[in-house]
Amino acid sequence: MDHRFETFSLSILELNRYLQKIKELEMKQFGLKASHTMCLYYLGQHPEGLTATQLTELCKEDKAAVSRCLSQLSDRQLVVCEQPADHKRSYRSRYMLTVQGRSVVSGIQTRIKEALSYGGRGLTEERRRDFYGTLAIISENLSDYLTEQGQQNKNIWRILWKKSELSQTQHPISLLLPEKTSLFYRLRYASAIRNTSTASQSVITNSTKS
């Protein structure tokens, strides 16, 4: 039996769990949270500063999480926000490390190197390079898979909608739906209307027979 899925899934989950625990352990020494790790790391890699949007892309986090993280780090006086020339706070505002922030990041970078060195024991440089290269390929392939499957699902919903007997042009009540209503909810609406109509017709038929 092929155990690739099991091996891959459990290995990734286990690695992620260890990584989160290490972040919590190491960041606690600085009075910080695991969620602060990547923002501080990337700000340390970019002394010129980064916008919240750039940090969102680099950290692979949603905007709300990054915004919350930056707010907490600002309160701790570890980062400072540089306003644009027009003095309007916007997506162009850059966040940079303060002197205190750079000191903390320096300590974090030392701990990162130690953890990586410990985790890579027994690996040659060639095996390490192959491992990271393999991870990059798998990540890119899975990203492409999600994109393709997402498009296929959209096409399926479109086909189902076109075949539905309760499309917008065929059912006046559907005109009440907002123009931006997603295809998924339009189909659910159509299905609900069809079920209601079927039930009503059944009641009328039974009444007639009575």
Task: Write a structural description.
By secondary structure, the chain is mainly alpha-helical. 68% of the residues lie in helices and 5% in strands. It is built from seven helices and three strands. Strands 1-3-2 form a three-stranded antiparallel β-sheet. Helix 3 crosses helix 4 (63-75) and helix 6 packs parallel to helix 7 (183-209). It is globular, with a radius of gyration of 27 Å. It starts with a helix and ends with a helix.
Mean pLDDT: 82
- Strand-residue proportion: under 5%
Looking at how many chains there are and whether they match, the oligomeric state comes to single chain
The poorly predicted ranges are none
Q: State the end-to-end distance.
A: 61 Å
Radius of gyration: 27 Å
Tally of DSSP helical segments: 7
- Overall 3D shape: globular
Output the helix-strand order: HHEHHEEHHH
Order of strands in the sheet with the most strands? 1-3-2
Helical content class: 55-70%
User: Tell me about the biggest sheet?
Assistant: 3 strands, antiparallel
Strands, count: 3
Structural class: mainly alpha
Features of the shown structure:
68% helix; 7 helices; single chain; 210 residues; 3-stranded antiparallel β-sheet; mainly alpha; globular
Could you give a quick summary of the protein structure above?
By secondary structure, this protein is mostly helical. Helix content is 68%, strand content 5%.
